[in-house]
Automatic annotation (TrEMBL):
Transmembrane regions: 48-70, 76-95, 107-128, 162-188, 221-238
Keyword annotations from UniProtKB, A to Z: Membrane, Transmembrane, Transmembrane helix
Designated name of the protein: Fatty acid desaturase, type 2
Cross-referenced Pfam families: FA_desaturase
GO cellular component, one term: membrane
PANTHER family cross-referenced by the UniProt entry: DELTA(5) FATTY ACID DESATURASE C-RELATED, FATTY ACID DESATURASE 2
Occurrences of domain Fatty acid desaturase (ranges): 75-335
InterPro entries: FA_desaturase_dom, Fatty_acid_desaturase
GO MF term list: oxidoreductase activity, acting on paired donors, with oxidation of a pair of donors resulting in the reduction of molecular oxygen to two molecules of water
Gene Ontology BP annotations: lipid biosynthetic process
Length: 365
């Protein structure tokens, strides 16, 4: 299928971009070929981008958190807490990059990220590695075997606010997991199995069950879980010396980060698939780009996540090359192409679209 056959050229008005339904059976081969050919020269993860970006985010995030804990002014503490949350959110989103770049691409980056971000925020990289890649599998995307997919647009209206607000409890859940369930699992194997299958992945599909870790990955899991266990109890023990205020402020900051990430997740896809396998093009059109000129998306979808649909076309493309890849494809394929069908103006429009879909579903029921 070519770009010209994807639209009604004889229509008197400007045609709309292609929809996901048009490509459930076959791919837009012209777009896929363009994605391959137009991005030559891109795709190499460069430490000159990753290291300064991650380290600066960490420095600002923890520095602002310390300020929020130490200052006496409540308004200033709130401002510093917000800055901390946004900076740590950006640092945390590098977990997405770690699942896609080759493990030898950036020597030391994975370990440094886990020590500086993953373990301190109780979300080490094993909670995404080996799980997120299932979301990109051609035959698993949007099915019950996809850990990161729920047909939210086809669910009840109350499911959307519940989906977002449940993220408020993330810090409590992580603390409970590492401080209590990890050591308990060492003593009671069935607990360990349950925790691994249902509470060891950053997933949204409650039906997903994680398979056992094997080989070198299993060894990485063990040291990351041990680090999380030590850090969780360090946080709890600190309350005996400095009180609960620092921990509660830190947890509030992480809660806001979790909610922001859940909002981003809510608009990362259109969530219109009912469980059937989809073509790559249909998966792309069920995903979302929020490209420039808007600046807000760079805050709520950092580290390349504003190009989430493009990422589904080229999962191994590093975040710093996605803007250029988008520019080339958009310039070559044009406004009325299939590619343009995944480009959306912002979060508010996307939330309204999904909410409207749930209301229509309710009316139909």
């Amino acid at each position: 299928m070519t770009m010209d056959t994807a639209f009604d050229q004889g229509a008197p008005t400007r045609p709309a971009p292609a929809t996901r339904a048009q490509f459930l059976a076959s791919d837009d081969k012209a777009m896929l070929r363009a994605a391959r050919d137009l991005t030559k020269g891109l795709g190499t993860a460069r430490g000159a981008y990753y290291w300064p970006d991650m380290l600066l985010s960490v420095l600002v995030g923890y520095g602002a958190m310390a300020g929020a804990i130490l200052v006496e002014s409540v308004p200033m503490a709130v401002v510093l807490g917000l800055v901390s949350s946004l900076a740590l959110y950006r640092a945390l989103m590098f977990i997405h990059e770690l699942t896609h770049i080759h493990r030898d691409a950036l020597p030391g980056f994975r370990t440094a990220w886990n020590l500086l971000v993953g373990i301190p925020l109780l979300t080490p990289s094993f909670m995404y590695e080996g799980v997120h890649t299932l979301h990109h599998k051609r035959t698993q995307y949007g099915t019950v075997e996809d850990p990161e997919y729920l047909p939210l647009a086809l669910m009840k209206p109350w499911s959307l606010p519940l989906f977002v607000l449940i993220a408020l409890l993330a810090p409590v859940g992580f603390l409970l997991r590492y401080a209590v369930l990890v050591p308990l699992g060492v003593i009671i194997p069935p607990v360990r199995k349950l925790v691994w299958e249902r509470a060891s992945a950053l997933m949204i599909n409650p039906e997903f069950r994680r398979k056992p870790a094997e080989g070198d990955f299993r060894r990485r899991v063990m040291w990351q879980e041990f680090g999380g266990f030590i850090w969780a109890w360090t946080l709890l023990a600190s309350t005996q010396f400095v009180g609960w205020r620092p921990l509660l402020i830190g947890m509030a900051i992480v809660s806001f980060t979790a909610v922001l990430n859940q909002l981003r997740t809510l608009v990362a896809h259109l969530w219109e698939n009912e469980g059937e396998p989809m073509t790559v093009t249909a998966q792309f059109l069920d995903s979302v780009n929020v490209p420039p000129p808007g600046l807000a998306a760079e805050i709520w979808a950092p580290v390349g996540l504003r190009y989430h649909a493009l990422h589904h076309l080229m999962p191994s493309m590093p975040y710093h090359d996605l803007p250029e890849a988008h520019r080339r494809l958009r310039s070559e394929l044009g406004e009325l192409s299939t590619y343009d069908g995944a480009n959306h103006p912002g979060m508010a429009v996307l939330v309204a679209r999904i909410a409207q879909s749930t209301m229509k579903r309710r009316a139909a029921d």
